[in-house]
Design brief:
By secondary structure, this protein is an alpha+beta fold. Helices cover 31% and strands 21% of the residues. The protein is globular, with a radius of gyration of 19 Å. The protein binds zinc ion. Zinc ion binds at residues 235-236, 261-263, 274, 291.
Length: 298
């Protein structure tokens, strides 16, 4: 492969993963530089991760609502490093307390509800934190040093809900409430093998929906397929071009190739939002892309 071709492939890959050049270049050993698919168990865990982080609040922890706006990457992930049986994440330090609050399980003392990912446990090492579910394959490696993780945990878990943070007291096992909750509720978030593969493919390419310094939020939820909404940033056509890319994109097609959107029509930007553009995976799962224009007041 020519040097310039390699450089182009590395640059393209980084548009999807956000990886720093030094990390993306390491994948040169992989002859294609393509983004690997997750194993089925890993994909199931990444589906849960994406659903939880789809609720991210994009502001520093406990910042007043009217404080000056700062800009963050999708779901707070500055970059992701996808491996077949692991997903590495660099979470923005401002959003790390939210991340802890969203993904680590919280069990109501007198109820059956479990927030976050049931069974998830954190193994804190000096330079990273490994998130796994005892007895199940799949892992998420958060590339944050132990002191930063512990500071985020202290913020996320104040004394009022310390009792709910079962993961801190049961490092190697699920609690009975988590097991019960998982048995009953997991199907809500389990999209099946092809659905999970699609969702995992999306989180592994989350920078495809990144617009640099001008996206206010991304919101993702499950309702009649996957709904993904963002405000400002890349237009539908830019996102769709990346997601449909032959080398780095997902195996998806447009639901209705004839349908037009309003992203490029600035005179119509006053509409409440550019309506949804849907794409569909080969397994049949739909992803609705809903973009709000970002109106910056003069
Ligand atoms: Zn549009």
């Amino acid at each position: 492969m020519l040097h310039s071709q390699r450089r182009n492939l590395i640059r393209n890959r980084r548009r999807y993963t956000g990886e720093p050049l030094s990390i993306a270049s390491r994948h040169l050993l992989d002859s294609t530089l393509s983004i690997p698919s997750a194993t089925p168990e890993q994909a199931a865990l990444e589906t849960l991760l994406l659903i939880m982080c789809g609720r991210m609040d994009y502001r520093p922890w406990r910042a007043p609502l009217n404080s000056e706006r700062r800009w963050y990457p999708p779901f707070g992930f500055r970059y992701v490093v996808p491996l077949p049986d692991e997903l590495q994440l660099d979470v923005h330090p401002d959003l790390l307390p939210f991340f802890v609050g969203l993904v680590m399980p919280a069990v109501e003392t007198d109820g059956t509800e479990v927030g976050g990912i049931a069974g998830l446990r954190a193994e804190v090492r000096a330079k990273h934190v490994l998130l796994t579910r005892p007895g199940r394959p799949g892992r998420i490696k958060v590339l944050t040093p132990s002191f930063a993780w512990e500071a985020a945990v202290a913020l996320a878990i104040d004394h009022t809900n310390r009792d709910m943070a079962v993961w801190m007291d049961h490092a190697d096992e699920w609690t009975p409430k988590e097991v019960a909750f998982y048995k009953i509720n997991n199907r809500l978030f389990d999209l099946g093998i092809s659905g999970n593969a699609f969702t995992s493919g999306l989180i592994r390419r989350c920078h495809a929906i990144y617009g640099g310094q001008n996206v206010r939020y991304w919101s993702l939820w499950i309702d009649d397929g996957i709904q993904l909404e963002w405000r400002g940033g890349p237009t539908h056509s830019a996102v769709i071009k990346r997601l449909l890319d032959h080398d780095f994109g997902l195996n998806v097609s447009l639901e209705d190739p004839t349908r037009r959107c309003y992203c490029e029509e600035s005179d119509r930007i006053g509409r409440d939002y550019c309506y949804r553009v849907a794409i569909r995976s080969s397994g049949g799962l739909g992803l609705a892309l809903r973009r709000h224009p970002l109106q910056l007041r003069p």
